[in-house]
Amino acid sequence: MGGEAGEERIKIGLEIHCQLTNLRTKLFCGCPADYRGSPPNTHICPICMGLPGTLPSPNKRAIEDGVAVAIALNSEISRRMTFFRKNYFYPDLPKNFQISQYDGGGGVPLARGGYLDIEGGKRIRIRRIQIEEDPAKLVHEGTIGDSAATLVDNNRAGVALLEIVTEPDIEDPREARAFLEKLRGILECLGVSNGELEGAMRCDANISIGGGTRVEIKNISSFKEVERALAFEITRQRQLLARGIGVRRETRHWDEVRRITVSLRAKEEEEDYRYFPEPDIVPIEISEDFIESVRRRMPELPDQRKERYMREFGLQEHNAELISSNNALWRLFEECVKMGGDPIEVSNWLVGDLISFTRELGMELTDPRVSPRKIVELVNLIRSGAISTKIAKDVLMESLRGDESPEEIVRRRGLLKISDESLLRGIVEEVFRENEGAVKEALRDEDVVNFLIGQVMRKTRGKADPKLTYELVKRNLERIAHGEGPSA
Amino acid sequence: MTPKTAIDARDELAGGASVEEYVLSLLERIRERDRTINSFITVCEASAIEAAKALDRKRGRGEKLGPLFGIPVAVKDNICTIGIRTTCGSRMLENFVPPYDATVIKRIKEADAIVIGKTNMDEFAMGSSTENSYFGPTRNPLDPTRVPGGSSGGSAAAVAGGFAPLALGADTGGSIRCPASFCSIVGLKPTYGAVSRYGLISYANSLEQIGPMASNVDDCELLFNVIRGYDPRDNTSLPQGRIEAKEGKLRIGVPKEFFMEGVQEAVGVHVRKFLDKMSGVFEIGEISLPSLAYALPAYYIIAMSEASSNLARYDGIRYGLRGEDGGDWNETYCNNRGIGFGREVKRRIILGTFALSAGYRNRYYIRAQKIRTLIREDLGRAFKEFDLIAGPTMPVLPFKIGEKLDPLEIYMCDIETVPANLAGTPAISIPCGMANGLPVGLQLMAPPFGEGLLFRAGRIIEELA
Amino acid sequence: MGEITPEDLERLCWLSRLRLSQEEKEEFLGQLNKILDYFRRIEEVDVEHVPPTYHVVDLTNVLREDEVEEPRPDEVLELAPRRKGRYILAPRII
User: Fold this and answer.
1) pTM for this entry
2) What is the ipTM of this complex?
């Protein structure tokens, strides 16, 4: 460890492209935007293919969606904006320019500034949000190196994208992932983008260590990969610095298979995008009224929901945070509460075993087998003392696997807790008779008491009321200690 | 049937004359004479005859007939026509057949007009003489040794040569008015936003408009009224507007800048004389609009900048000319564009790229857009004082084919016409007689949506000329 | 010395993906600089406080409703000179 802590400071900024997947049409034409699973070049028209003479027509809802995101991220929305052309040649751009926005040179993005707080209250500032069109998808025959040709599928070309750029406020890879997950939750909650869809949310990252050179990483396909790529890049840069080698300012590509970043071949020429206002689209003015109308239609955001859960139901922050930021989870939670489930108990089950069980079973939380009724029944069975927490876990697992509800399982399998004292007393006596040696030891050693309790549990297959069993075993031991017979 | 005007033709055809025979007679004339004039890149013989027959049947059924009933229209080849190749005068689009009609084509078809052919033009509308066409130059029907003007030279020649009573052109910096002047016909550049640009192959989007060309003002107005109007497919399309002048004589302002730089003496003298002749009917006054001195460079910088971006799409991958693939995609693109574009197009793309590039953008592109503001303001002030602004359409008389080889010299021909494009105002060119035996056009400009004033004044000028 | 040097011309050709013949390069260099000399005339005007005009129509917010217009993709796809199945073939990217 050498130098001041400040020199080691890691600064990470993210540039996220999310498709507005809930739009019916592309950004500038009426082609259906939902292209996934369609054969290549079926969602194309003269406009998105940039045919001569065609003109773009901006999608109103794309602007509304962008404004909603800007509101959710506390950004300042531009009152008047224009689309700009970003000029560069590439086979994925049908017009060889991208209709985008430009921050500077007379251009303003949809919104500037704003922030998003991630777990632990850490604030990540937003630099800008802008709307642009997605390029086409390129498919390489063979590998990129020896491919004789590139196949172009234009179905994606012209789909509306939101570009969200953060300030370099992120300090470690985990934070980057937490930010992205939180952002995805917000976009899903607003109903503007389904981040789960393949390629719907893509991320580039830039990173510098100790105020050093900034390196960009591209081609990161998922949030997990973002975390990995950044972790690799930190190690790589640290090793360079430790050996006294400077970090080069460059763009690197994340190789998911080898799990390393690789330097992209230096570009022949530096790019010059020659931005200028799109002459074919008139400016867009966003009035206070417009913003208000979008705001009114916005659903409750995860942070607002979290606050409410803590306030209304007394949930702990951890549970409130986890539940409110996951759409499936909060919907489930609210259903359970509506059905009369105790909010705190329900929240503990959702955050704890439900998440891990569904993961184990490879089920989505939205799977119909994960029904609120099951959770509520389970919580009520425990509350009424009908089953133990231990049995409840088995019951939940079994219930998730099939269609039976917890009550049905408990009834069918006879899992109701044995709290009938006379019934239990007989079993305790049986255990004492069969384990005379252990009983003697138990008089001196508390650990062996637990063994006796365990034997009772085994005989009842876990159904014995633990509290009652303990009392009965203790009582019997006391009697023996006082020279009385084992039986009461 | 030899009607003098499009309106006469329509009336005769609507009254029972055979549309098919009329079209056949024009096709015959084209076959005979267009070999020398070269006004058409594509003559739509089969589809025109078929359309004519359909119209004859329509009339036979007693249906309501459109305002352009049976009128063949010559269409500039940068306006997309479904199923008819649309080349833009370029090798790049030599075989490009659009799967859609431009909005104006839909409108004229709905008005019962017939597309008789696609007319020659400077490649991608870049030129003022129709010499920059991959399909060879068009000759002026009034004097085949001379240019017809450009870039809508084919459309003007088609009207002047009697191949079609009406034509559609497009005007980015004078491309309708220049050939109208050189071919002694009437040509209107409408208010920016008055006519849909959907289907017009862009050269410089913020400047250009499709407009009507005809042998007389009434015919020009007839076609304009069919093609104008709001189109949701064009984001810059305006709802219809109309401005009226107050009663009495129209006031015409004549900017002295229109008679200064590069104006041939014969033209200047002739137009001055004609304006004197007009002064009995109009109230004419001299004005000065100093910003006009900067209109030409500002225009070219903006047009080239937009063009450099608009023409980027021609890479030969999705449509258009694709040569041999060699090396990687960059080489293929360079190659396709290198063989697909002619020299003037390349020059303008390079200059436009330069004007937008880092370090030069402020100095050229943005400064030019600021000059544009000044020109708009100057014209706005002039229109407070005058109903119309007048001057020569062209600073020069029609020149010989091959006479002007220097690009800048050709650019200077647009000096009178570009202000209207920069400001988005309507402007018309009307024949106003001959100088040295060659036609001279008078340009009238009006405030936005002042087309009605232009036609009203134009009819008077037609009488005087 | 003109504004555009031979090296600049190479770069501009690269930026605009244009291959010029040697003859074209030689012809263009002088022409382009002559044109630029003329263009620089606009520097005579003081425009410091003048806003640029990018659109001459005073329109704003011309937006389309998010309604699907069924595409007819085949007639667009057919225009591509080289295809493989439903893909458009572009040259290779190294």
Assistant:
1) 0.88
2) 0.97
